[in-house]
Amino acid sequence: MQSYFLGGKYPDVDEAVKVALVLETYPLLERVELDTLAERSGVARRKVRIVLVLLKRHGLVREHRGGGWERLQTGLLSVDLSADLTDYEERRVQDRAKLRTMVSYCQSARCRTRFILEYFGEPVEESWVCGNCDACDAQERFSERTRRVVAG
Questions:
Q1: pTM of the prediction?
Q2: Is 31 helix (H, G, I), strand (E, B) or coil?
Q3: Strand, coil or helix: 94
């Protein structure tokens, strides 16, 4: 599931190189559509856009209103995007951790309020539960049934 939501969200170095190589085949100041770059490079459209934004930050490309990009300089491959792409890798790791926590929240039989408080670092007594969430309601119903069976 994580790979579905997060897999390939951010480009890696090889994908950035593929986009730059395709863009280098176009003459300076020639407008190229994002979809064209994605198709010719074999890199997903959203990743191509991220690479172009990084190149734009370095002053190497320009984005046109209404779409399209143009190369402003030669030597796109001479720019070191590794630090920028490392930032994206760190985001990917953080996104995966957040998703794992969300899945744990959904699958947990523990008090939902307690789970949220602990997630945000709030101190919670060991035995505390809110008594208002679906997990607390289910625990209360289970305890009531258990009491009836034992008493019965």
A1: 0.61
A2: strand
A3: helix
> Which tokens in the block code for residue 91?
């985001």
Q: In what order do the strands lie in the sheet with 31-32?
A: 31-32, 69-71, 61-63
pLDDT at 105: 93
Nearest by Cα to 7 from 40, 34, 46, 37: 46
Contact predicate 36/130, CB 8 Å: no
End-to-end, the C-alpha distance of the chain in Å comes to: 44
Considering the segment(s) 2-83 as one domain, its CATH architecture is Orthogonal Bundle (1.10)
**Residue 96 corresponds to which tokens in the numbers above?**
């995966």
Burial status of residue 83 (CB atoms within 10 A of its CB: 0-12, 13-18, 19 or more):
exposed
Domain boundaries, the chain: 2-83
Alpha helices (runs of H) in the chain, residue ranges in sequence order: 2-6, 13-24, 34-41, 45-57, 82-107, 112-119, 134-151
Span 33-82, pLDDT tens digits: 999 999 999 999 999 999 999 999 999 999 998 889 999 998 888 888 87
Distance CA 102, CA 111 (A): 14
SS3 category, 61 = strand
